Amino acid sequence: VLVNGGTLTLNGSTCDFGDVEMSSGVINGNTATIDLNTGATSGYIWEQSGGTWNHDTSTVVCKVNGKHIRSNNWWNLNIECPTNTESIVWRDNGGNHPVIYNNLTITTGKFKRDGSSLDDDLTVHGLTNIASNGTFGVAADDTGDNTFNGLVTNNGTFCTSSGANNLNGGVRNLGTFTSNDTITIGGTGGILEGDL
Q1: Is the pTM of this model over 0.90?
Q2: What is the CB neighbour count within 10 angstroms for residue 26?
Q3: Would you call 115 exposed, middle or buried from its count of C-beta atoms within 10 A (0-12, 13-18, 19+)?
């Protein structure tokens, strides 16, 4: 899907797209589920270089290996690679700080920073759920700050950053927690479970 001006408004259905390239114009996500299935030859499955992405309460599902996503804002972001050794690579669209305003779900595969954006910050306001075949981050690579304002539930692999690691909603570690970095547990009424 190429958005190069105008407005693309999605409804509440599931939209099967190979990839999304946006240089100008507007995409209104509304309540849609947007499945990204193949990716472009540029290496992206979502590339926002301009325009306005109104995520609303949409869910973007990344389903291919080794592709990049580029935007500063998401509502729900799901990682569903074909296997647990494959990756979705994220980077910002200026400002060095993408934000997931609701939930991050890593079902299968790795969700990691781009090699040129290792110092980018990431904030997740909702829940972070990592399944047994999922991995967040790359040990010893990341230097940007990670802030999780909702509960982090890890059944897979969670790698901290050498930057700040703010777990403001608590953490349930039922998998592998890879860290030799500083972790800050903030907020009130949070959960701390498992080995860290």
Answers
A1: yes
A2: 15
A3: exposed
Question: At residue 88, does pLDDT exceed 90?
Answer: yes
For the stretch 42-51, pLDDT in tens is 899 999 999 9
Report d(CA 162, CA 6) in Å as an integer. 42
Sequence-distant (≥ 6) Cβ neighbours of residue 52 within 8 angstroms = 25, 26, 27
pLDDT at 189: 67
Of 71, 37, 72, 77, which is closest to residue 57 (Cα–Cα)?
A: 77
